[in-house]
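QUALITY CONTROL LOG
STEP: pairwise intake check
CHECKER ROLE: data steward
CRITERIA: each record must contain a sequence immediately followed by its structure tokens, with no blank fields

ENTRY 1 OF 2
RESULT FIELD BELOW
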Amino acid sequence: MKLLEGKKGLIMGVANQKSIAWGVAEACHQHGAELAFTYLNETLERRVRPLAESLGSTFLLPCDVQRDDEIQAVFTSIEKEWGKLDFLVHSVAFAKGEDLNNRFSLTSREGFHLAMDVSVYSFIKTMACAKNVLGKDSSALTMSYYGAQKVVPNYRMMGVAKAALEASVRELAVDLGPDQVRVNAISAGPIKTLAASGISDFRDLLNYFEPRAPLRRLISIENVGSSAVYLLSDLASAVTGEVHYVDCGFNVTAA
């Protein structure tokens, strides 16, 4: 049974084949969705285009999420090409390296603004621009992490940003609920992605996680993709404002 058959979705945030967004894209494609992708710049377009084409998609759009006009242009193009959108996946986050490696109290004002703009406001603005093309019973999904709830070593500014992102999910769920648009987040366990490479001692984090998670294993982008399909599909038609953990149960422990 293909849970997304006949649905059209936008994937934001694919960097390479190890990206969480790519795991979600593959799962959505396997369940019958037709997909569009965004990319930040020409360098990333060269990575994203062949991946998109491997799923039968040639609908790629430039989008610097720090530019309101580019976000709006994405949905103007989608409306022109497709008319409506059934779901979108926002997997975009960034913080300056020094704001992950320095003491948190030394976070720069510029770095704070940058992390919040890219990691949080971009989702809010995306939802505002998408409102006219998101049809009834549509769904939006963003990506969080346990550092939003507890202090995770070396996550620092990103933990604050993810906490704000989760709060934004709840606010957007209430704001867009009357339009029958659902808004949720997945909080994935640690995965070796390009973004994770910016976190100091990330391997130590993986080594700490695996023996303490109830299922005693790490998670994969495929695990995230499977849960994303559920949240984006009609099976989750009464689920909104939630942070869904895909972390082998790690969040329930006192480790």
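ENTRY 2 OF 2
RESULT FIELD BELOW
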Amino acid sequence: MNEALLNLIAANAAFVGTHFLMSHPLRATLVKPLGDLGFQVVYSLVSIATLAWVYFAFTAAPPADLPGSGDIGWIVATLLTIPAMVLFAGSLAGNPALGLPGSEDMARAEPKGAFRVTRHPMMWGFALWALSHLVLFWSMRTMITAFAMGFLALVGAHMQDRKKEVLMGEAWETWESHTSFWPRWSKLVGVGAGPWAIGLILFVFLSWLHLPLGDIAAGIWRWF
């Protein structure tokens, strides 16, 4: 394995590792001297720095060194990306996991929209996005980064449940009893017009963005 890919592995490990460490075992230790606001600033700076490392390491790695999975792979990737964007869009409102004011009331309320599919629609959106890139089998750099992001999303979602059980107690336990970690895909159609509209707009725009950023036609733009 060449030096560029080793650097990319290290960058992804740093991004994922610091997220896990700062979100869980180191959180209380850091909040005590820094305060909540100071911790959020440090957390954000570390996240930005490690993500920048991932970006520059990614761009330095070989762009297309695997055979790819052909048109079948692109079709599967496209079909995976649509629900990923819908779940992400549906996670932006009424999400008790975001730690916004009123989170405990949100957790005690009846799940609606994307939360009827899973209590972690944002994380599962990221995981499906990662899977869509893995099935393409396009390059080692994509495989490494997509695997890391998918791992972060799903393991992070599991760890988030444990953290919220401590922080929110009975409210989060109520949320867990009314929702599912694993997606109930049959309920995706009924998440509401808003998440579907926003998700489809994101799908069209972000797949188009592959052309100016990476000179790769993705999604529907591959066939138009």
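INTAKE CHECK: passed for both entries
DESCRIPTIVE NOTE, ENTRY 2: The first helix runs from residue 3 to 23.
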